[in-house]
Amino acid sequence: MLELGYALSSEEHGPRELVDLARRAEAAGFSFALISDHFHPWVSRQGHSPFVWSVIGGIAEATSTLRLGTGVTCPIRRLHPALVAQAAATAGAMMPGRFFLGVGSGEHLNEHIFGEAWPPAETRLEMLEEAIGLIRALWTGESTSETGTFFRVDEARLYTLPDEPPPIYVAASGPASATLAARAGDGLIATSPDSELVEAFRAEAGRRKPRFGQLTVCYAEDAAEAERIAHRYWPTAGLKGKDDLLWELKTPALFEEVVANVRPEDVSNAILCGPDADAHLARIRQYEDAGFDHVYVHQVGPDQAGFFEFYESRVLPELR
After folding, report:
1. Closest to 79 in 3D by CA, of 43, 57, 53, 48
2. Which single residue of 87, 117, 186, 285 has CA 20 to 30 Å from 294?
3. pLDDT the model gives residue 243
């Protein structure tokens, strides 16, 4: 059965607002949420980028049934995997049975801040797989000393642990990362309804492991207004060849340069804009048809209240 979730956009909202949005998502009927883990927003006009692990503590206390995961954390540069293991274990202890760890190989935008070289994609995947193994080792609660290819820990032991380790879901955008997600992870996270990606994941993981797909929309009462808002707050959606740019550009200022010629219609070709409930349902079904069993919706822009009312009254009842 398809589950519908909500995307908490740390790039667009401050920490208190994110906690409130998680509470409202739970009340509206969304069963889970993923919260982005960034050091920078994509473009400065988005305006925010709080430390996600502090926000998760607030959400843990503000909700009671909502399942929550990071969407996604990069445990290979800015955050050492041992710190990610500790942070996720603490979140799992605060949200018993409700927290999962989403991980990925990261973007230069967030991971360059300590001045270390940005590795090529294949190296980042190797680093990610090693990091996942180290996180799982620390979650046993045993004293851990490891010297790997990329990471080292010396007699590290976690004392605060949940009763059960959180699931680890791995973000993928191509066959190599989908295979890694199947091999090292407990599930898949993706940002488009890509059936080939799902099949690459299923070829090794089988059908039991969950598949999460992110759908980006901009609800407004007028479709033209929704297009304007989407263009203002999420212009990167309209970039051609955006996958390479998303992983490699270094600062919000550079993203602002490359989106200077992106038109509103370029963005609305990628982001579903407007108040047509049938169109929203059809886009959700695209993910289901591609093999995803979880879809989480990212509403672009400040009108989150209108989005919740629209989905609670027009979209969620149809999915039930």
Report:
1. 53
2. 87
3. 65
CA atoms within 13 Å, Cβ hemisphere of 180: 25
Q: Is residue 7 within a helix (H) or strand (E), and if so which, with residue range?
A: strand 3-8
Token pair, residue 250, equals 């270094």
Check if the beta carbon of residue 1 is closer than 8 Å to that of residue 210.
no
Hey, which residues does 218 pair with through a beta bridge? 273
Distance CA 55, CA 20 (A): 10
What average pLDDT does range 177-197 have in this prediction?
A: 98
Catalytic residue (one of 11, 12, 26, 107): 107
**255-272 residue pLDDT tens:** 999 999 999 999 999 999
Taken in order of first residue, the domains within the chain and their CATH numbers are 3-319 (3.20.20.30)
CA 60 from chain centre, in angstroms, equals 18
What is the chain's mean pLDDT, rounded? 97
Query: In 58-97, which positions are buried (b, 16+ CB within 10 angstroms) versus exposed (e)?
Result: bbbebbeebbbbbbbbbbbbbbbbbebbbbbbbbbebbee
Rounded to 5 degrees, φ, ψ at 34 are: -120, 140
Is 40 marked active-site? no
Exposure b/e, 230-253, CB count within 10 A at least 16 = b: bbbbbbbbbbeeeeebbbebbebe
Mean pLDDT of 100-109: 98
Q: Is 38 a catalytic site residue?
A: yes
Segment 44-69 mean pLDDT: 98
The separation between the first and the last C-alpha atoms of the chain, rounded to the nearest angstrom, is 9
pLDDT class of 246 with cuts at 50, 70, 90: confident
Under 8 Å between Cβ of 220 and 226:
yes
Backbone φ/ψ region at 262: left (φ over 0), alpha (ψ -120 to 50), beta:
beta
Q: What is the dihedral of CA 274, 280, 282, 283, to 10 degrees?
A: 90
Q: Which helix (H) or strand (E) holds 101?
A: strand 99-103
Q: Which one from 13, 38, 112, 298 is the annotated catalytic residue?
A: 38
149 backbone dihedrals φ, ψ, rounded to 5°: -65, -35
